[in-house]
Amino acid sequence: MTPMTEVAGRRLALSNLDKVLYPDSGFTKGQLLHYYATTSEPLLAQLRDRPVSFLRYPDGPGGQRFFTKNVPPGTPEWVRTAEVPHSDGSQRQVVVQDLPSLIWAANLVTEFHTPQWRDGAHGRADRLVLDLDPGAPATVVECCEVALWLRERLAGDGLEAFVKTSGSKGLHLLASIRPTASDRVTAYAKRLAVAAERELPALVTHRMTRSLRPGKVFVDFSQNAAAKTTATPYTVRARPEPTVSAPLTWDEVAGCGTPEQLVVLAGEVAGRLERYGDLLAPLYEEGRAGELPS
Protein backbone atom coordinates (compact mmCIF):
# COMPACT_ATOMS: atom_id res chain seq x y z
CA MET A 1 0.00 0.00 0.00
CA THR A 2 1.38 3.43 -0.95
CA PRO A 3 2.02 5.53 2.17
CA MET A 4 0.24 8.88 2.52
CA THR A 5 2.12 12.13 3.07
CA GLU A 6 0.70 15.49 4.12
CA VAL A 7 1.79 18.48 2.06
CA ALA A 8 0.51 21.88 3.20
CA GLY A 9 -2.68 20.31 4.56
CA ARG A 10 -3.32 18.00 1.60
CA ARG A 11 -2.86 14.24 1.79
CA LEU A 12 -0.84 12.77 -1.07
CA ALA A 13 0.25 9.27 -2.01
CA LEU A 14 3.90 9.56 -3.07
CA SER A 15 5.07 6.33 -4.67
CA ASN A 16 8.39 4.61 -5.45
CA LEU A 17 10.58 7.23 -3.82
CA ASP A 18 13.69 5.02 -4.06
CA LYS A 19 13.23 4.40 -7.78
CA VAL A 20 16.30 5.51 -9.74
CA LEU A 21 15.19 7.75 -12.59
CA TYR A 22 18.62 8.83 -13.83
CA PRO A 23 20.91 5.75 -13.74
CA ASP A 24 24.10 7.64 -14.66
CA SER A 25 23.89 9.74 -11.50
CA GLY A 26 21.71 7.56 -9.26
CA PHE A 27 19.18 10.41 -9.00
CA THR A 28 15.96 9.01 -7.52
CA LYS A 29 12.32 9.94 -7.62
CA GLY A 30 12.56 10.98 -3.98
CA GLN A 31 15.34 13.42 -4.92
CA LEU A 32 13.23 14.74 -7.77
CA LEU A 33 10.34 15.46 -5.40
CA HIS A 34 12.73 17.07 -2.92
CA TYR A 35 14.04 19.30 -5.69
CA TYR A 36 10.54 20.47 -6.62
CA ALA A 37 9.61 21.05 -2.97
CA THR A 38 12.68 23.17 -2.29
CA THR A 39 12.36 25.10 -5.58
CA SER A 40 8.61 25.56 -5.30
CA GLU A 41 8.53 29.32 -4.74
CA PRO A 42 10.18 30.45 -8.00
CA LEU A 43 8.69 27.55 -9.96
CA LEU A 44 5.15 28.29 -8.81
CA ALA A 45 5.62 31.92 -9.86
CA GLN A 46 6.25 30.62 -13.39
CA LEU A 47 3.40 28.09 -13.36
CA ARG A 48 0.75 30.30 -11.78
CA ASP A 49 -2.40 30.71 -13.92
CA ARG A 50 -0.80 28.93 -16.90
CA PRO A 51 -2.40 25.65 -18.09
CA VAL A 52 0.25 22.94 -17.94
CA SER A 53 1.21 20.37 -20.52
CA PHE A 54 3.09 17.38 -19.13
CA LEU A 55 5.92 15.43 -20.68
CA ARG A 56 5.78 12.30 -18.55
CA TYR A 57 8.67 9.86 -18.18
CA PRO A 58 7.67 7.58 -15.28
CA ASP A 59 10.53 5.12 -15.85
CA GLY A 60 13.19 7.77 -16.33
CA PRO A 61 14.50 9.46 -19.49
CA GLY A 62 15.50 6.10 -20.99
CA GLY A 63 11.95 4.71 -20.73
CA GLN A 64 8.68 5.58 -22.37
CA ARG A 65 7.94 9.29 -22.71
CA PHE A 66 4.60 10.78 -23.64
CA PHE A 67 3.23 14.30 -23.90
CA THR A 68 -0.23 15.04 -22.53
CA LYS A 69 -2.39 18.11 -22.11
CA ASN A 70 -5.48 16.40 -20.67
CA VAL A 71 -6.14 16.23 -16.94
CA PRO A 72 -4.61 12.88 -15.84
CA PRO A 73 -6.94 10.18 -14.46
CA GLY A 74 -7.15 10.28 -10.67
CA THR A 75 -6.40 13.99 -10.41
CA PRO A 76 -7.51 15.16 -6.93
CA GLU A 77 -10.57 17.40 -6.90
CA TRP A 78 -8.60 20.17 -5.18
CA VAL A 79 -6.20 20.53 -8.12
CA ARG A 80 -7.32 23.48 -10.22
CA THR A 81 -8.17 22.82 -13.86
CA ALA A 82 -9.15 25.11 -16.72
CA GLU A 83 -11.02 24.74 -19.99
CA VAL A 84 -8.58 25.50 -22.81
CA PRO A 85 -9.54 26.02 -26.48
CA HIS A 86 -7.82 23.76 -29.02
CA SER A 87 -8.16 23.35 -32.76
CA ASP A 88 -10.19 20.16 -32.29
CA GLY A 89 -12.34 21.49 -29.44
CA SER A 90 -11.72 22.55 -25.88
CA GLN A 91 -10.26 20.34 -23.18
CA ARG A 92 -9.47 20.65 -19.50
CA GLN A 93 -5.87 21.09 -18.37
CA VAL A 94 -4.21 21.30 -14.99
CA VAL A 95 -3.23 24.69 -13.57
CA VAL A 96 -0.59 24.25 -10.84
CA GLN A 97 -1.24 26.94 -8.23
CA ASP A 98 0.19 25.66 -4.95
CA LEU A 99 2.69 23.32 -3.33
CA PRO A 100 0.38 20.29 -2.97
CA SER A 101 -0.58 20.51 -6.67
CA LEU A 102 3.09 20.84 -7.62
CA ILE A 103 4.15 17.77 -5.62
CA TRP A 104 1.16 15.78 -6.88
CA ALA A 105 2.16 16.60 -10.48
CA ALA A 106 5.86 15.94 -9.81
CA ASN A 107 4.95 12.51 -8.41
CA LEU A 108 3.77 11.63 -11.92
CA VAL A 109 7.39 12.30 -13.04
CA THR A 110 6.89 15.13 -15.48
CA GLU A 111 8.51 17.99 -17.28
CA PHE A 112 6.35 21.09 -16.99
CA HIS A 113 5.54 23.01 -20.18
CA THR A 114 3.49 26.21 -20.25
CA PRO A 115 2.16 28.68 -22.84
CA GLN A 116 2.99 32.38 -22.96
CA TRP A 117 -0.56 33.35 -21.90
CA ARG A 118 -2.57 32.84 -18.73
CA ASP A 119 -5.88 31.15 -17.97
CA GLY A 120 -8.69 33.51 -18.90
CA ALA A 121 -6.55 35.29 -21.49
CA HIS A 122 -6.08 32.58 -24.11
CA GLY A 123 -4.15 33.88 -27.09
CA ARG A 124 -3.04 37.08 -25.33
CA ALA A 125 0.59 36.62 -24.38
CA ASP A 126 2.21 38.41 -21.46
CA ARG A 127 5.60 36.92 -22.25
CA LEU A 128 7.80 36.76 -25.35
CA VAL A 129 10.05 33.73 -25.86
CA LEU A 130 12.87 32.97 -28.31
CA ASP A 131 14.21 29.42 -28.36
CA LEU A 132 17.84 29.19 -29.50
CA ASP A 133 18.53 25.66 -30.70
CA PRO A 134 22.04 24.80 -31.95
CA GLY A 135 22.59 22.46 -34.88
CA ALA A 136 25.76 20.38 -34.45
CA PRO A 137 28.61 21.12 -34.50
CA ALA A 138 27.27 24.39 -33.04
CA THR A 139 26.64 24.26 -29.30
CA VAL A 140 25.27 26.49 -26.57
CA VAL A 141 28.46 28.55 -26.95
CA GLU A 142 27.19 29.79 -30.33
CA CYS A 143 23.74 30.27 -28.77
CA CYS A 144 25.32 32.66 -26.27
CA GLU A 145 26.69 34.84 -29.07
CA VAL A 146 23.26 34.99 -30.68
CA ALA A 147 21.58 35.63 -27.31
CA LEU A 148 23.78 38.65 -26.66
CA TRP A 149 22.90 40.10 -30.08
CA LEU A 150 19.19 39.52 -29.48
CA ARG A 151 19.42 41.07 -26.02
CA GLU A 152 20.72 44.30 -27.52
CA ARG A 153 18.10 44.25 -30.27
CA LEU A 154 15.30 43.72 -27.74
CA ALA A 155 16.67 46.52 -25.56
CA GLY A 156 16.56 48.81 -28.60
CA ASP A 157 12.84 48.04 -28.81
CA GLY A 158 12.36 48.80 -25.12
CA LEU A 159 12.19 45.17 -23.97
CA GLU A 160 14.36 43.70 -21.20
CA ALA A 161 15.56 40.17 -21.98
CA PHE A 162 16.16 37.42 -19.46
CA VAL A 163 17.87 34.15 -20.26
CA LYS A 164 17.74 30.54 -19.13
CA THR A 165 19.09 27.23 -20.29
CA SER A 166 16.62 25.06 -22.14
CA GLY A 167 17.82 22.20 -19.95
CA SER A 168 18.76 20.47 -23.19
CA LYS A 169 21.17 21.91 -25.79
CA GLY A 170 20.25 25.55 -26.10
CA LEU A 171 18.95 28.73 -24.49
CA HIS A 172 15.61 30.48 -24.04
CA LEU A 173 15.24 34.26 -24.02
CA LEU A 174 12.22 35.69 -22.22
CA ALA A 175 10.78 39.19 -22.02
CA SER A 176 7.77 40.53 -20.14
CA ILE A 177 5.26 42.24 -22.41
CA ARG A 178 1.90 43.90 -21.96
CA PRO A 179 -0.83 41.41 -22.96
CA THR A 180 -0.72 41.20 -26.73
CA ALA A 181 -2.37 38.93 -29.30
CA SER A 182 -0.21 35.83 -29.73
CA ASP A 183 -0.14 36.13 -33.53
CA ARG A 184 1.26 39.65 -33.24
CA VAL A 185 3.91 38.46 -30.77
CA THR A 186 4.83 35.62 -33.13
CA ALA A 187 5.15 38.05 -36.04
CA TYR A 188 7.42 40.33 -34.01
CA ALA A 189 9.54 37.36 -32.84
CA LYS A 190 9.89 36.25 -36.47
CA ARG A 191 11.13 39.72 -37.45
CA LEU A 192 13.78 39.42 -34.73
CA ALA A 193 14.84 35.98 -35.99
CA VAL A 194 15.05 37.20 -39.59
CA ALA A 195 17.07 40.24 -38.48
CA ALA A 196 19.45 37.99 -36.53
CA GLU A 197 19.97 35.81 -39.62
CA ARG A 198 20.61 38.87 -41.77
CA GLU A 199 23.12 40.29 -39.27
CA LEU A 200 24.80 36.95 -38.42
CA PRO A 201 24.35 34.87 -41.60
CA ALA A 202 27.12 32.38 -40.79
CA LEU A 203 25.65 31.73 -37.35
CA VAL A 204 21.84 32.00 -37.47
CA THR A 205 18.90 30.54 -39.34
CA HIS A 206 15.27 31.42 -38.72
CA ARG A 207 14.04 28.43 -40.73
CA MET A 208 13.39 25.00 -39.29
CA THR A 209 14.59 23.13 -42.40
CA ARG A 210 17.05 20.52 -41.13
CA SER A 211 19.44 20.90 -44.05
CA LEU A 212 19.96 24.58 -43.15
CA ARG A 213 20.74 24.01 -39.49
CA PRO A 214 24.14 22.24 -39.17
CA GLY A 215 26.62 24.59 -37.54
CA LYS A 216 23.99 27.29 -37.00
CA VAL A 217 21.64 28.42 -34.26
CA PHE A 218 17.97 28.08 -35.14
CA VAL A 219 16.08 31.02 -33.63
CA ASP A 220 12.67 29.45 -33.08
CA PHE A 221 10.04 32.18 -32.87
CA SER A 222 7.06 29.83 -33.21
CA GLN A 223 6.68 29.07 -29.50
CA ASN A 224 4.86 32.39 -29.13
CA ALA A 225 1.86 30.91 -30.97
CA ALA A 226 -1.16 30.43 -28.72
CA ALA A 227 -1.12 26.64 -29.21
CA LYS A 228 2.57 26.23 -28.37
CA THR A 229 4.29 25.68 -25.02
CA THR A 230 7.84 26.04 -23.73
CA ALA A 231 9.69 24.22 -20.96
CA THR A 232 8.80 26.08 -17.78
CA PRO A 233 11.69 27.76 -15.96
CA TYR A 234 13.06 25.49 -13.20
CA THR A 235 11.56 22.29 -14.63
CA VAL A 236 13.79 19.21 -14.59
CA ARG A 237 14.23 17.75 -18.07
CA ALA A 238 14.05 14.17 -19.31
CA ARG A 239 17.71 14.10 -20.31
CA PRO A 240 20.49 11.61 -19.44
CA GLU A 241 21.20 13.70 -16.32
CA PRO A 242 18.70 15.68 -14.20
CA THR A 243 19.36 18.96 -15.98
CA VAL A 244 17.19 21.98 -15.24
CA SER A 245 15.87 24.75 -17.46
CA ALA A 246 17.71 27.19 -15.23
CA PRO A 247 17.92 31.00 -15.25
CA LEU A 248 21.36 32.42 -16.00
CA THR A 249 23.09 35.72 -15.46
CA TRP A 250 24.13 37.65 -18.53
CA ASP A 251 27.70 37.51 -17.24
CA GLU A 252 27.51 33.71 -17.45
CA VAL A 253 26.28 33.97 -21.03
CA ALA A 254 28.98 36.47 -22.01
CA GLY A 255 31.69 34.35 -20.38
CA CYS A 256 30.64 30.98 -21.80
CA GLY A 257 33.54 29.17 -23.45
CA THR A 258 32.40 25.53 -23.26
CA PRO A 259 28.97 23.88 -23.24
CA GLU A 260 29.66 22.32 -19.82
CA GLN A 261 29.74 25.76 -18.20
CA LEU A 262 26.00 26.21 -18.73
CA VAL A 263 24.78 22.78 -17.64
CA VAL A 264 22.78 23.21 -14.43
CA LEU A 265 21.79 20.06 -12.52
CA ALA A 266 18.89 19.80 -10.07
CA GLY A 267 21.28 19.53 -7.14
CA GLU A 268 22.88 22.87 -8.03
CA VAL A 269 19.76 25.02 -8.17
CA ALA A 270 19.42 25.63 -4.42
CA GLY A 271 22.94 27.07 -4.33
CA ARG A 272 22.22 29.26 -7.33
CA LEU A 273 19.04 30.58 -5.72
CA GLU A 274 20.99 31.38 -2.58
CA ARG A 275 23.65 33.18 -4.59
CA TYR A 276 21.56 34.99 -7.20
CA GLY A 277 17.97 34.82 -5.97
CA ASP A 278 15.29 34.21 -8.57
CA LEU A 279 16.80 35.74 -11.70
CA LEU A 280 13.42 35.67 -13.43
CA ALA A 281 11.47 37.43 -10.67
CA PRO A 282 11.60 40.76 -12.57
CA LEU A 283 9.45 39.21 -15.31
CA TYR A 284 6.46 39.68 -13.02
CA GLU A 285 7.32 42.96 -11.35
CA GLU A 286 4.77 45.68 -11.89
CA GLY A 287 5.89 48.18 -14.47
CA ARG A 288 8.49 45.92 -16.11
CA ALA A 289 6.29 44.76 -18.99
CA GLY A 290 7.21 46.33 -22.32
CA GLU A 291 5.12 47.30 -25.34
CA LEU A 292 5.83 45.60 -28.64
CA PRO A 293 6.83 48.04 -31.38
CA SER A 294 4.30 48.59 -34.14
TrEMBL record:
Family matches, as Gene3D superfamilies: DNA primase, PRIM domain (3.90.920.10)
Q: Which residues form a coiled coil?
A: none
Q: Where is the DNA ligase D polymerase domain?
A: 28-279
Enumerate the GO terms in the molecular function aspect.
Answer: ligase activity
Q: Which CDD domains does the record associate with it?
A: MtLigD_Pol_like
Q: Which InterPro entries match?
A: LigD_pol_dom, MtLigD_Pol-like, NHEJ_LigD
Arranged from A to Z, the UniProt key words for this protein are:
Ligase
Q: Which PANTHER family match?
A: BIFUNCTIONAL NON-HOMOLOGOUS END JOINING PROTEIN LIGD
Q: State the name under which the record lists this protein.
A: ATP-dependent DNA ligase
